[in-house]
Amino acid sequence: MRTKRLRRALVAGLAGLLAGAGLTALPGTAHAADTLASAAAAKGRYFGTAVAANHLGESAYVSTLNREFGSVTAENEMKWDATEPSRGNFTFGAGDRIVGHAQSRGMDVRGHTLVWHSQLPGWVSGLGANDLRSAMNNHITRVMQHYQGEIHSWDVVNEAFQDGGSGARRNSVFQNKLGDGWIEEAFRTARAADPNAKLCYNDYNTDGVNAKSNAVYNLVRDLKSRGVPIDCVGFQSHFNSASPVPSDYRANLQRFADLGVEVQITELDIEGSGSSQAASYARVVDACLAVSRCTGITVWGVTDKYSWRSGGTPLLFDGNYAKKPAYHSVLSALGGSGGGDDGGGDAGCSVSYTKTREWSDRFNGQVTVTAGSRPISGWTVTVTVTPPQKVSATWNGSPTWDSSGNVMTMRPNGNGNLSAGASTSFGFTVMKNGNSAAPVLGGCTAS
Ligand code: XIL
């Protein structure tokens, strides 16, 4: 914590000096909203990722992490099997490496997770009820005290409900031996161990309104009404074609927020590729931004190559750390711009989209490109359509296409020179082929 505050104070002081000298940007730093973290911060949110300690020696991994993310979650290093492999013997080395890295870069840390049926060392399952109760409380207390002051939110309890329609508690050693009250006890112990950390309940398949999320909702409402300390609910948000982003995702986040807790998107990944993956990611970001108590988003890994679902290529950077269409749509949904740094410390250009005409089989879209506070002599914008849509015509721009045919990269056609604050537009026709979804804009890059 001390390191982080010191670094922030130094950066603020340096910015003040530069402003006094008539300069607005730190030389060599990107402008404010061309990374996930800075664009999210401009909206009052954090944007984080899960991190594995054993990749912190890989330079491309670390440079992507450092550039784009403002919060980290240990992917495995703070789980019970990692932190207390045998009773009373605590090992914090790998978790500490992640926290140390985060602090050295001014990033926040989410704590994941204190009590979970999985990645639980065998010795816990063998305990009788009284022993189990004291082992659980001791584990919570020791781990939280070790990281006291370093964690903004802890997943105190993870995945305590069953899948399927029953809304019942999951069969776990905690449930079976301690009964329903174990969750409440875990949260009370956690508050006593670190009164400043936010305490979250975290689960999956609770992202839309369904029997499981209803059960979590009833739990949280009950805890709140009885004054049990709970501050936040985490929605893991692991999505794929069998479990897509639910249509009532925003409404579900909002009903939890209305109980008086923060909501956080804690483990986001969406299997797929190209424009449909990009559009799904944008919907998640839009939902969080629409809920004022949605305080941040964490994706479950930096690069597809290390994802726990690597076959599903579910993340924002591919195996070579290239930005995927999903990255651009997230940045754009956060209100950021696509990375064009004009050296002046502000966005080189920005883009907006409107649908100008629609017929039963097609619609026309228009993208307006606006220069920032300096003149520009060119711009690049990506427009991604949802298959089986196809772009059948374009005007006032020069398009190129990716191999899927869904991602159009548009550059000027005689309309690249824009004075500061001036705008130009290009247009295109999208054949719907049965799908009316709006195209997803990547950010604008100025040259
Ligand atoms: C996963 C990790 O990503 C894997 O490396 C590990 O082998 C298993 O756990 N829900 C959670 C996360 O809360 O802790 C899980 O992380 C993914 C599902």
List keywords for this structure.
disordered N terminus, 13 helices, binds (3S,4R)-3-hydroxy-2-oxopiperidin-4-yl beta-D-xylopyranoside, single chain, 447 residues, alpha/beta
Would you mind describing this structure in some detail?
The protein is α/β, with parallel strands linked by helices. About 30% of the residues lie in helices and about 25% in strands. An eight-stranded parallel β-barrel has the order 1-2-3-4-5-6-8-9, surrounded by six helices. It has a four-stranded antiparallel β-sheet with strand order 10-11-16-13, with no helix packed on it. α12 runs parallel beside α13. The protein is elongated and about 75 Å long. Residues about 1-30 and about 340-345 have low confidence and may be disordered. (3S,4R)-3-hydroxy-2-oxopiperidin-4-yl beta-D-xylopyranoside (XIL) binds near residues 76, 158, 236 and 308.
